[in-house]
Amino acid sequence: MDNHISKVIVITDFTVHQLAILNRMCEHLDHHSISYVIYDKTVVTPTSDNVEEANN
Fold this sequence. Notes:
Layout: E1 7-11, H1 14-18, H2 23-31, E2 35-39, H3 48-55
Parallel strand pairs: 1-2
């Protein structure tokens, strides 16, 4: 199935990012030439500022 996805944003927290839990997913995205950005500054109750920062 081809969804024509060209870019994704992965929203997570610092700990999950540092534990390399996302490596397999990133390898899959790379394999399919899908660019991605990892935003790892999310918090338990995100503020509108956190959402805006992730969007940029």
